[in-house]
Amino acid sequence: MLIPKTVIRQDIKQTWMILVGLFIVPILGFPVSAYLRIERLNRSSGASIETYASHIEGVLRARGYSFWMILFVILLAAFFLGLERRNGFHDLSMTFPYKRSTLFLSKWVLGTGALAFSYIGSFLVAYAMFLSHGYEESIAAADPWPTFLATLIGLIGIFTFSLFVGTITGNIYSQLLLSVGCLYFPAGIFSLVRDFLYVHGAENLPSTPYWLGTLTMPWYVTNFMNPPLLSYSWIPLLVTLFSLIMGVRLYEKSPNEYNGEFLLFPRLYPAIQTGVILGAGLITGVFLERVLGTGSFSLLFYWTGFLLGGISAYLLIKIPSKDKKSSTAV
Fold this sequence. Notes:
Blueprint: H1 5-43, H2 49-60, H3 66-80, H4 82-87, H5 89-93, H6 100-132, H7 136-142, H8 145-165, H9 172-183, H10 185-199, H11 210-214, H12 219-222, H13 234-253, H14 269-292, H15 298-316, H16 322-325
């Protein structure tokens, strides 16, 4: 299906700053980092191939820039939908003579295309730079291709899932909050529960299981100690497919009268509100306990932080009025 140029131009107009950032970050992470690393390697003659491979591997995994890649793809999804509902662009796009599914797919195609082009292009430039300076054996030892492909698939999964979240949220802030929370949920909730048990006296608690990391989308971009293998990449591919299909369906059903609210579908409030309140409480409890808690006061500071975070989250999520709730259902 061809995406109308009018829709593409409109999407570019409202997200051009994020799109620029999405191109700049891979350039800094790959070609610029490769140039600086080559200058350093050229001054350290006599090192082993394994040493060179370790340096090259660090560049071709974009260490130091992975967080920024995740941030920009989530922001891009939020600008496509959350900001659109906030600044009135959504009402304008609804006047276009195109199906809602076409409008949603245009955002996905533009975002995925820009991400893939910038990431693949920057990686290939850095790869060619190392080859042109005679590091063929070190590149072969580093074997960056599996990690490169898994990372790219993970980034597309993060973007598509964040776009899907935007079909149930009513503004950019709630989309960002739920996108980050859900993306980090599998490994994040395990870590938070473990910290909760530790504060309450539990000992010999297990570390985060490797399989749980494979269910956490950012793991495919940021995990450098145990690089993600392509054998696990069916998980972000499945997330991408599910998010794209459900995103199209929900975007077609999303009610315009809830634009600006935390959620577009009132029936989702009980579950999501409970999850956000508990999550915020656990996070602020751990934060306050680690910053201020010492000795016997650790438990006090933990529960103080828990209550402050939970109450703040409760006040943040405003349930729409009964008049609005009665007019729309999922």
